Amino acid sequence: MSSTATPLALTFTSTSLRLAAMRLKRLPVIAALSLASLGIGSCFATEQPSALAQKTARYAVQKYDKDIIKTLAKMVSFNTVANPAIPFEQNPAHVGFKTYLQSEAARLGFDFADHGYVVVIGFGKGSERVGVITHGDVQPVDPTKWKQSPFQLDAKSEPGRLLGRGTEDDKGPIASGLYAMKAIKDSTEGKKIALSKRIELYVYMAEESDWAPLEDFLKTHTPPQINITLDAEYPVVIAEKGYGTVQLTVPPQHPNITPNDAHLSAFGGGFFGSQIPEDAYVNISNATPEIEQAIKQRAAKQNKMQYTYRWQDRELEIKARGVSAHSSKPEDGVNAIAMLADALNLRTWQETTAGSMVNLINDLLGTSLYGEKFGNAAYHDNFMGSMSVAPTVIKQTAEGIQLGINIRRPQGKPATQLQQEMQEALDAWQTKHVTLRDVAIELSDPWIRNDAPQVPTLLSVFSHYTGIKNPQPISIGGGTNSRLFPNAVSFGPSMPGKVYSGHSEHEFISTKQLLLNLQMYTAVLVELAK
Q1: Closest among 184, 150, 183 to 168, alpha carbons compared
Q2: What is the dihedral of CA 230, 234, 237, 241, to 10 degrees?
Q3: How far apart are alpha carbons 370 and 388 in whole angstroms?
Q4: Are 299 and 347 in contact, with CB atoms under 8 Å apart?
Q5: Cβ distance 340 to 318 under 8 Å?
Q6: Which residue of 77, 190, 480, 481 has the lowest C-beta tally within 10 Å?
Q7: Of the candidates 353, 342, 330, 412, which has an alpha carbon nearest to the alpha carbon of residue 377?
Q8: Residues 272-290: pLDDT tens digits?
Q9: Residue 386, beta-bridge partner list
Q10: Are 216 and 472 in contact (CB under 8 A)?
């Protein structure tokens, strides 16, 4: 993604459209369903999975309930965060993770192919293949916010939960996929199952940072004909919002300030672009006890926010703590940047660099999740839901204070129109306040697949194992590699209505959910491959 575009400039190239690739992830917002608008029926057959599928799924849990946790613990131990300073092929964590996958494949009796950024673990023969799509890299993490290392599986701090970076996104699904395949392989060796299709588990190592290597790989590699992606939400994901970013910088401002004028001297927050920020801070120079009290009164009206106040002479430092979440599900978090700006919204602050940034956030974003204050940009689709707009990162740079806004956009409005509306809102704000620098708006398109033939099978398995009647396909706010594979839709690992913990500083998967996923993945693969 480029952050150097000038105001008014947006070029829709293959690079900018690859935003669906860049830190999309993932995850989901359940939208109101209007399947008729997609040209598909609103009811799917949900016959029981076959007796063979159910038997194999039971065997998987009875046989491998302990092994799957051991494998997950080992996978979590690899800090597979992309490091711009180290080439992928030289990154010891990535190399070590792939080496471990190779050893696991050999131990479980699978073949293994290393294609650089992509490894393929498989078994069986046949021209027809079923693909299971996952990723082995993870998002950055702040170790100070964890009870123990995020790269050490924690099964004790919160009974029933397995905490660690990647447990839900996406190493838990890799472990589930491996042991689903192992249970099926055991049954084929016992002559209980005769497969007509080969099963292949794909593990991509840069899903959280750069989709270009996967796109390049698929230009020469023939993927399976049917694919399921284990990187989103149940019941079945057939649509994903488009990913977007708005980047802008408030350049250094030097207004005339008298010695006693209260003004904002620093403002920042956030960790990375696809995480709803749980931390933000502000420094107020020449602050007074009255200003502190007024801010406290506004802050007290906010839910799930915590504030600390520290004085140093006449400078007041305020730190805000919200709740981190995946940026595709902003309703699961509490945005510390937006909430702190709102707590400061006692006045239009003097246009220092920090004051201008706070004024901009309050004027154009506010605490809404859906961009209603962003000019005419806000819109809604009956199936995919509303566009979400979230300030996620504020950085102090030599050029000023930089703001990154995360966008998740549904179908229903052309990208050129949305870009123009956002730019018009920014232009109007600048005429009244300060001139921004390095404004860049990049948008990718929403994605829909309404003709994947395996959807009824996935829904029947989900309904059987959860007891949820008549489940329907859904749309999510994030993006997955389903976009790049033929006939691919997402199937878990997160249950509908549950808070998605991936990308947060409290990532976990429950032991119960891990084993439920193992059952469902086993049953699905039996049905699709036999």
Answers
A1: 150
A2: -90
A3: 4
A4: no
A5: yes
A6: 190
A7: 412
A8: 999 999 999 999 999 999 9
A9: 380
A10: no
Listed in sequence order, the DSSP H helices in 192-335 are 212-220, 289-299
Residue owning tokens 């004085």:
311
If one counts every other C-beta atom within 10 angstroms of the C-beta of residue 362, the result is 18
Query: CA 226, 95, 136: angle at the middle one, nearest 5?
Result: 35
Q: Strands, E, within 42-125: which ranges?
A: 111-114, 118-123
Residue 36 above 60 pLDDT?
no
Q: What Cα–Cα distance (Å) separates residue 463 from each residue in 29, 367, 399?
A: 20, 37, 54
pLDDT greater than 60 at residue 19: no
Q: How large is the average pLDDT for residues 59-80?
A: 98
Structure token pair of residue 182 = 């192992």
Single out the residue of 159, 160, 163 nearest to residue 143, CA to CA: 163
Number of H helices, E strands in the chain: 12, 25
Helix, strand, or coil (residue 139): coil
Alpha carbons 485 and 225: distance in angstroms, whole number: 8
Q: How many CB atoms lie within 10 A of CB 301?
A: 9
Amino acid identity for residue 239 in this structure: A
For residues 195 and 191, give the distance between their C-alpha atoms in angstroms, rounded to a whole number.
Answer: 10
* Cβ atoms of 209 and 23 closer than 8 Å: yes
d(CA 271, CA 322): 13
What is the band of 193 on the pLDDT scale with cuts at 50, 70, 90?
Answer: confident
pTM above 0.90, yes or no: no
Number of Cβ atoms within 10 Å of the Cβ of 172: 31
Is residue 18's pLDDT more than 70? no
Specify whether the CB–CB gap between 265 and 315 falls below 8 A. yes
* Mean predicted lDDT score pLDDT of the chain: 91
Helix 51-64 and helix 67-76, axial crossing angle in degrees, nearest 10: 70
Dist. CA 342–CA 287, nearest whole Å: 17
- Structure tokens, 111: 């073949």
| Preceding amide of 159 cis, omega within 30 | no
Give the three-class secondary structure for 80. coil
What is the distance between the alpha carbons of residues 33 and 460, in angstroms, rounded to a whole number?
A: 18
Q: Is the pLDDT of residue 89 over 80?
A: yes
Q: Is 378 helix (H, G, I), strand (E, B) or coil?
A: coil
Residue 217, classified by CB atoms within 10 Å of its CB into exposed (0-12), middle (13-18) or buried (19+), is middle
